[in-house]
Design a protein that fits this description.
heterodimer, A: about 180 residues, alpha/beta, Rossmann fold, five-stranded parallel sheet, about 30% strand, globular, B: about 300 residues, four-stranded parallel sheet
Chain lengths: ~180, ~300
């Protein structure tokens, strides 16, 4: 990542780590025991955050939380409207019937991916409820009525030429950038 | 074809390894989906597909139709025996009439080699070749290679695949050769000299006329059906003699001191190219091939609908 005036660090790794730990405490506070809950990372970019949150919860409670990854490609609303969509694996080795699901993605933008992910989730069972957790919420870019239950930071930029990149170096170190598409 | 984006799937020839692997990666996800209680997705809900079958088919036709329906597409079926083709309508007129009813994609089987290429040049629709004469049958080759790959834990490179039988009339053989070679497998064909075309060695495949020797070489044996409907002249003295020289039975299999994976594209002539005992044995993945066929066809249709192969 070179130095460029169009690039801005939204969250350095220390702040991102604090947010992940906050997420873990919020989940424990809201869910109590997570034995009836499951953490699901949305492919492709939500899975690492989801795993980090799962590990943070386990560190605090000693509890192993059910974990899966979900791909929403086949449920998108823009197939045959351009763009490249090669699916990644969905791996949910348990029924989600009556579970409390925490769906995790890195950035909430238009909300369309989450809409598709909720559809994709239903083929694994009927959860008792689904919550949404994101690291970055781009609050003014929504195209469907979806909002997060847990969020790291909000960005109020209306500039569609900017995008957010969540950059994982390894499981423990993450930096969040605001970048200019032209940079 | 090098752009990475193709509009049609007319054959395997010209497809790159990366494109085939994209199909496999997508098919893996559909395989997983097909194991779930809800097997349907709305991915192609705004696409209409016409299945045009100018030649008999059971497996391929059902497989395509299931794939289309599980992708949420609208499907219309057409067979030449009950159509205006019998009244003398040309292929282009038939297809243009169907397309004028707002059909987005055509899946076609036709007895004439090159029929799909011909159609692709003359109509403005996406074409998927479901078998054109003795030319190509790309989705069969993809599902065969996908089945081999899955059996060997994702690794097909360097595997030795033997294709036995009527190579001369087989679109399955030609598509399999292109597909397996693109993925780095070695291919040998085996059969009577009358059923192996002379040009075949120019494709870089080995040729054998001795099944026992060829089986010793192979990791996989794909036993092709003797296509009685295409035997316009006598290519071998009798089915009994063919079966004795080129049929795979348990005696032959037991002589091999190794595991051999047995495949067949169907429909099987039991007791001719393969004995019932072998076809139903643990060595055989014939029914897995059929199962994988739906996932592969879902992947092809899904990727083509995005113009994304």
């Amino acid at each position: 990542m070179n130095n460029n005036s169009a690039q801005k660090i939204l969250l350095n790794s220390q702040k991102a780590d604090l947010i992940i730990r906050r997420f873990a405490f919020e989940l424990i506070e809201n869910h109590g025991s997570l034995s009836n809950s499951a953490i699901i990372g949305l492919q492709p970019r939500g899975t690492e955050l989801a795993l980090a949150v799962k590990n943070a919860v386990s560190e605090i409670t000693g509890e192993d939380v059910k974990f899966g990854t979900l791909d929403h490609t086949f449920y998108r609303d823009d197939i045959s409207r351009g763009g490249i969509h090669i699916p990644k694996p969905s791996k949910i080795d348990f029924s989600t019937e009556n579970l409390r699901i925490i769906l995790i993605d890195d950035v909430l933008y238009t909300g369309r991916s989450i809409r598709a992910a909720i559809d994709a989730m239903m083929r694994f069972g009927r959860p008792s409820d689904i919550e949404l957790m994101v690291m970055v919420d781009r609050i003014h870019q929504r195209e469907v009525p979806i909002k997060p239950d847990y969020k790291g930071v909000s960005i109020d930029s209306r500039n569609t030429e900017q995008f957010v990149k969540v950059d994982w170096k390894d499981q423990s170190e993450v930096t969040v950038w605001l970048l200019d598409k032209k940079s | 074809m090098n752009s990475g984006v193709i509009k049609h799937l007319l054959g395997i020839k010209g497809l790159e390894k990366s494109q085939i692997e994209s199909i496999f990666q997508t098919a893996e996800n559909f395989s997983e989906l097909l194991q779930a209680p809800v097997k349907k997705t709305p991915a192609l809900r705004d696409i209409t597909i016409a299945n045009l079958f100018f030649e008999n088919s059971t497996r391929t036709r059902v497989s395509f139709e299931l794939a289309e329906k599980r992708l949420g597409a609208d499907v219309v079926n057409f067979s030449s025996s009950s159509s205006s083709v019998k009244k003398g309508e040309t292929l282009i007129d038939t297809v243009k009439n169907i397309l004028s009813m707002k059909v987005d994609m055509i899946v076609m089987r036709h007895p004439a080699p090159g029929a799909c290429q011909f159609l692709a040049k003359h109509v403005n629709s996406q074409i998927v070749n479901a078998g054109d004469g003795t030319h190509e049958h790309p989705t069969q080759a993809l599902l065969d290679a996908f089945s081999i790959r899955n059996h060997f834990n994702g690794n097909i490179e360097g595997k030795r695949v033997l294709i036995v039988g009527d190579i001369k009339h087989s679109r399955v053989a030609l598509s399999n050769i292109y597909c397996l070679q693109a993925l780095g497998a070695e291919v040998m064909v085996c059969g009577p000299a009358t059923l192996i075309p002379k040009y075949i060695e120019t494709l870089g495949v080995k040729v054998s006329h001795n099944l026992d020797e060829a089986l010793k070489w192979a990791d996989v044996a794909n036993m092709l059906r003797i296509q009685l409907e295409r035997q316009d002249s006598r290519f071998f003295p009798s089915l009994k003699e063919y079966s004795k020289l080129y049929g795979l039975d348990m005696d032959r299999l037991n002589k091999l001191d190794k595991e051999l994976l047995i495949m067949h594209p169907g429909p099987i002539n039991r007791g001719v190219e393969i004995s019932s005992e072998v076809a139903d044995s643990d060595h055989s993945i014939i029914l897995q091939q059929v199962e994988n066929g739906v996932a592969i066809r879902m992947a092809v249709l899904f990727l083509l609908a995005q113009r994304n192969l």
